Structures are given as structure tokens and as C-alpha cells.
Amino acid sequence: MAGFITTDELKKKIDDKENFILVEVLGPETFAEFHLPGAINVPVDDTFEANIQAKVPDKNMPVVVYCRDIECHASAKATKRMELLGYATVFEYHNGKEGWKAMGLPTEVGPSK
């Protein structure tokens, strides 16, 4: 099942320390500039399927994917590709990192762990 998640819903998930994985699907340089708190980096490229399965092996774990902003389509591509791999619950955060930051919400900097 894929769906969409709002800024308020995502902030609540993070604040409540819900058990989910937050994935930025942009490249590592863009990820390092800033990203949402607790996010991991799995770029949508030719290695996406192998990398997402390595970093998120539990396909029943809820996952939220995002990219730069509402104009960016990388998160939609990632969502579709994850559905094809059998991930059960994938949410796309449309506003992306720029929308999150524009709301004055906290971000982190640095490379993926």
C-alpha cells in the first residue's frame, strides 16, 4: 500500500518516535547539505533496489520517502519501485526537504550513516 503523508503527520511520527524508516532518495551530496531528522539516504538510481533492500530488509516496516520539493518526482519513482519489491506500507512526503525546512522544522547535516 502506498499513500501520501502531510508535514503535520510526518512531524508527529518523528516526535512520537514511531517505528518507521525515513528515506531521502536524492544523491549523497544533496543529502549531506541537509536532511530530515533521522533520515537515511538511498538515491533513486540503478542500484536503488539492491540498496533499499539492504538498508530496509523488513518489507513490513512502514517507510516514508521524500526528495527535494513538490516539483521533484524522485520520491514517486522510489515509491513505485518499492511497491514492486513488495514493501507493504510506503508513504510519499510530497513537500520534500525544502517544504519541511520552509516550515521552520529541524534538519540535520552530514553524510548518511
UniProtKB/TrEMBL annotation:
Tell me the InterPro entries matching this sequence. Answer: GlpE_sulfurtransferase, Rhodanese-like_dom, Rhodanese-like_dom_sf, Thiosulphate_STrfase_CS
A molecular function annotated in GO for this UniProt entry is: thiosulfate-cyanide sulfurtransferase activity
Pfam families hit by this protein: Rhodanese
- Stretches assigned to the Rhodanese domain: 16-109
Q: Which CDD domains match?
A: RHOD
PANTHER family linked to this entry: FAD-DEPENDENT OXIDOREDUCTASE, OXIDOREDUCTASE
Q: What is this protein called?
A: Rhodanese domain-containing protein
